[in-house]
Amino acid sequence: MAEVCSKIWLYGVVQGVGFRYNTQTQAKRLGVNGYARNLDDGGVEVLACGEAQQVEALLAWLKAGGPRSARVDKLLVEPHQPAQPPHGFTTG
């Protein structure tokens, strides 16, 4: 199967609540590669690459609000084709 990538931006209470770490844990559990990083505007950007079903599962988890300590008020997602596919899932 072909790998798909999505770039996701999340806004709400998503910084300082373990959002990136929990997203990394969930992504690794699902076999999704990419990253989760804080943005200067208070949001979090996530790059998710993997089989479509895996990326959709991570997206569903994010849409549901992510970790219990977080609150997602706004989520934007678009397809993305990185120049180099990521290996593993990082935070930063």
Secondary-structure blueprint of this entry?
Elements: E1 3-13, H1 19-30, E2 33-38, E3 44-51, H2 52-63, E4 71-79, E5 89-91
Parallel strand pairs: 2-5
Antiparallel strand pairs: 1-3, 1-4, 2-3
Q: How is this structure best described in words?
A:
This protein has helices at 19-30, 52-63, and strands spanning 3-13, 33-38, 44-51, 71-79, 89-91. Helix 1 packs antiparallel against helix 2 (52-63). The protein has 92 residues and is of the alpha+beta class. It has two helices and five strands. It has a five-stranded mixed beta sheet with strand order 4-1-3-2-5, covered by helices on one side.
Describe the structure concisely:
This protein has two helices and five strands; from the N terminus they run E-H-E-E-H-E-E.
N-end to C-end Cα span:
29 Å
H/E series: EHEEHEE
How many β-strand runs? 5
The description of the largest β-sheet is: 5 strands, mixed
Helix count equals: 2
Which terms summarize this structure?
5-stranded mixed beta sheet, globular, alpha+beta, 92 residues, single chain
